[in-house]
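Figure caption, in words: inputs first, then the predicted bound structure.
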Amino acid sequence: MNQKKIIFSGIKPSGDLHLGNYLGAISQWVELQDKYKCLFCVVNYHAITVRQDPAILKQRTKDIVKIYLASGINSQKANIFLQSDVYEHTELAWILNCTSTRMSDLNLMTQYKDKSKNGENNVSVGLFDYPVLMASDILLYNTDIVPVGDDQVQHVELCRDLAKRFNHDYAPTFKLPEVMIRKQGARIMSLNNPDNKMSKSDDGDSGCIYLNDDLDTVRKKIMKSVTDSGNEVKYDLLEKPAVSNLMTIYHLLTGESYKDIKNTYSGKGYGDFKKGLADVVVKFLGEFQAKLNSISDAQVEKVLESGATCAKVLAEETLKKVKERVGII
Ligand code: TYM
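Bound structure (tryptophanyl-5'AMP present):
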């Protein structure tokens, strides 16, 4: 019997992926795939909660699979699949909408509040309901652990609440998942403003390093990044939030400790540090993009086909149980 704990996580193809997605989520997944039974999904139904260009959405969905593979996720060890290939996700979301979710739960979600504040009349019901689909993603697979960046913690907590409510109102059905966030890198900030998270919805933002940015652009973005007062390269989130964010990127990409980074740049100032960081990021992205370009569309198709087949077996079993409990024939 396979006793490995189950990991589920996903990324939505609503914009080009950036260093925050890689450092906060994907790189963490790579480390987990040997120890756990992992399911990594491209959650394309989540992407359409805001308007998408259909052709770009299709392309991005496949590109994310390539990014997973180029990052080192091994499709022999982890299950990579599309949300839209396993209809149980949307079906369970409907059931949870009706049985276990209150409007008051969703009204508390800070991501919804942030995303809807600039156009309340234009906000889709899907955007409001987004966390219920996310809960369905997680609960379908008896997930033990959900590795995400810290902006998703509230959604995972809601998922636990919905599972508890369903288990209480019907019968024990869902496992309660735990959230896992990195000690460092759970929230990579914008290079322009250390108060804002690096985000794929900020299209063309010079504070965001996209994984497909050309390397000259990356260097320029880093050299133009904001720093703090003073000139000492030191990790101090309160006094030096911008430099600390840059140091975190450096630390995660090189494995060097904050202390070693500080020592390397001691007496040199921010300019030299940014040059050093630009070298680190350009080296990483150069190698990453080379791997990305070597992955074929045929490879993606193959990975997704077997991924969906395996995921469906688990998802069907859970949905069957849920329908039984609720009385859906
Ligand atoms: P998404 O697509 O916005 O982001 C994908 C992952 O990247 C993390 N992340 C960051 N981490 C560190 N610093 C940042 N600046 C940064 N920006 C994004 C996110 O926390 C996330 O882990 N709702 C999810 C997708 C989803 C999901 C799920 C995740 C749908 N169903 C089930 C886990 C389990 C989302 O929008 O992520």
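The chain has two domains: 6-186+296-326, 205-292.
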